[in-house]
Amino acid sequence: MKVLAAMSGGVDSAVAAARAVEAGHEVVGVHLALSRMPGTLRTGSRGCCTVEDAMDARRAANLLGIPFYVWDLSERFKEDVVDDFIAEYAAGRTPNPCMRCNEKIKFSALLDKAIALGFDAVATGHYATLASGEHGTELHRASAWAKDQSYVLGVLTERQLARCYFPLGDTPSKDLVRAEADERGLQVAQKPDSHDICFIPDGDTRGWLSEHVRREPGEILDESGAVVGSHDGAHGYTIGQRRGLQLGRPAPDGRPRYVLSIRPVSNEVVVGPKDRLAIGRIAGGRFSWAGTPGFDVSAEFACEVQIRAHAEPVPARARLEPILEADRTEQHRAEATHEVVVDVDLDRAEPLTGVAPGQTAVLYVGTRVLGQFTIDRAVPIVPPTGESRIDVHG
Amino acid sequence: MAVAEPPTRGGAYLDHAATSPIPENVLDAYVEALRVTGNPASTHGHGQGASEMLESARERLARALGCDHAELTLTGGGTESINLALKGTYWARRRAGAGPVILIADGEHHATVESAEWLRDAQGARLRWLPIDAEGRLRPETLAAAISEAGPDQVALVSFLWANNEVGTIQPVRELCSVAASAGIPVHVDAVAALGQVPINFREAGADLLSVSAHKVGGPVGVGALVVGRRVVADSLFHGGAQQRSRSGTQDVAGAVAFAAALEAAIEPDGSPRADRIVRLAELRDRLIQGVRAIDPSAVLRGADPLSDRLPGNAHFTFPGCQGDSLVYLLDAAGVSVSVGSACQAGVAEISHVLLAMGLPESEAVGALRFTLAPDTRDDEIAALLAALPQALERARAAGLA
């Protein structure tokens, strides 16, 4: 088939392209120019959009003897990833820009363009596997779980999965990929991994955000609504944060207080005791299925839920159901009518911690990625102090 | 289609404005000159031999360009020539008491744009951008108005293209130079794209500085020249030896020899392009334009039309609903090398600032494709383009403006 190999300039996508060539496909390499920082060189481990990365990708393509192009998707990237990242933070959510890039750029703008130009598939260096199931293409974890990247691909839909090609999915380890790159003579064999946000070159996310999101001073409340302090911009806080709150009044019970939630609309930060950070239920109205689930998702089903790229999956039970008006939060999109609700199986697992709206929860059944949703609400296990009703975050 | 394959071998090469292959006789002259031992600045016999080769090449180049040999500074290419022209002249003029204003036409080559911007950001120059018309032309009355608005004594320098490298529009060079001259302001003309395709005579044009490059006319990359009129001072960018009037550094004898050989192959002794070459170029270009229009009536020819006002080797279109880089890929896959215009360091196709300056909206400017020819472009290269274009347009339109 005709394969467009998305080449970041890193070792994984270079080896993925090499394997696609070796498998007999007609391969064309494309590097995406995602930011406009001409002349920027890589420092440390960062980057996937510098001039140096484009050159590394080009050298790899030349070695493989495949045509190579740089496509400028910086405009789309700015709108769909960078601006979205800023808007999400400004709205009190914690987004994952890499997932957004997969959803909107790599497997949408790039994939659509590739298909229109006559390609059959887009190959990337992601560690994940595809399988043909009863209901079509299924996305599964990589055979080596340590390198598994299926989480960041959880946003892919049936249509997209049908056009994906992950040549590294069954590789036992990254070391083997590096060794293979070395054997093939790819000069990126020992290039460090990138793991920061590519458009924040110095890795200082907070500093970068403070330049891009307007800070509005506001109040810090406890869960009863009493003002216990003030802040100079709600987005500067992280769920679970304890230090740096500078609260004027000590808690009545003398226990330390933590950031429990951020209310972007009212510009309030809510603090409370640590046990209120233990989350037993998460839910969200922005969801997608990675291919046809193959069963009735409105009836409760057993699964595992993972809320960060490197978090452990947690046993849970999930279902799709209408959003109850009482459960709507500032985070829910107005147009959402249903939400995926996930209850952690507390008999078999600890509650979730560090849960922030905006994070993506990916559902797994065994090794299979079932789908994902953006967390709109997180429900603590214990009720708030002095209140009988179960409050929800946000 | 291996990347390392030279463009002259196989496929259709319609990107001569990017660089043009070196003809065999020029290559022979180049290699022969490279074999000669001797630094032209040395005083011994070896040096004198090299000096003779260098200076005779300089004389041939000067004759071809209509300047005196003492006015011709050899450089490391068009970009260096332009940098030297702008920065060197700006510094010298400021020292002599001229004001800080630089008048630059819109849609200039990046070498001009970025040199001027550097002078603004680092040296306090004030830039005035001169609008160009919808065909990419700088009108003399625009320049005259800008000079009187800024005040003639405030203007350090004027710079514009002899012919635009993207859309091929030939400027009214003589009129523009005369406007600047009557105000007493030195003019730099960037003739890199025009060289070999239109008659260029430094003296008759009335220019004060003129930039040219060898590899656009079949000479080697890394060789160029800046003509600095004898009454003009351009401070050096490079110091250390003062081998030339405005440039230090050991001189490239073989490069000069090859440049002279390439230029002489392209022009008549009087400096005008060789008639057979121009006739052939224009005929190829017109056939290409007609062919493209027949395939896609919605395609718009950009730049000057009447065709007499554009470079004979240039055809430039915008294709509505297409992204230029999609077309470049699709045509490349069909063995046809074309370009969207200029390319930056990372090989990214940027939206043409020339088209934007001509008043095109971004949505139209993204669909740009430039075809540039040489006199030895083969008929089958044009045929290959016209054969591949219909499907390329269809697919590029399906991909849209993503």
Describe this protein's structure:
The complex is a heterodimer of chains A (394) and B (402). Chain A is an alpha+beta fold. Chain A has three domains: 2-183, 3-Layer(aba) Sandwich (Rossmann fold), CATH 3.40.50; 215-275, SH3 type barrels (Roll); 278-380, Translation factors (Elongation Factor Tu (Ef-tu), domain 3, Beta Barrel). Helices cover 22% and strands 27% of the residues of chain A. Chain A contains seven helices and 19 strands. In chain A, strand 1 (2-6), helix 1 and strand 2 (26-33) form a beta-alpha-beta unit. In chain A, helix 1 (11-22) crosses helix 6 and helix 3 runs antiparallel to helix 4. The N and C termini of chain A lie far apart (48 Å). Mean pLDDT of chain A is 88; it is low at 41-48 and 387-394. Chain B has 402 residues and is of the alpha/beta class. Chain B folds into two domains: 12-20 and 274-399, Alpha-Beta Complex (Aspartate Aminotransferase, domain 1), CATH 3.90.1150; 24-266, Aspartate Aminotransferase, domain 2 (3-Layer(aba) Sandwich). Chain B is 41% helix and 13% strand. Chain B contains 13 helices and twelve strands. In chain B, the strands form three sheets. A seven-stranded mixed beta sheet of chain B has the order 2-8-7-6-5-3-4, sandwiched between helices. Mean pLDDT of chain B is 94; it is low at 1-9. The A-B interface holds A 28, 31, 33, 38-39, 51, 54-55, 58, 61-62, 65, 67-73, 76, 109, 112-113, 116-118 and B 1-4, 325-326, 328-330, 332-333, 344-350, 395-396, 398-400, 402.
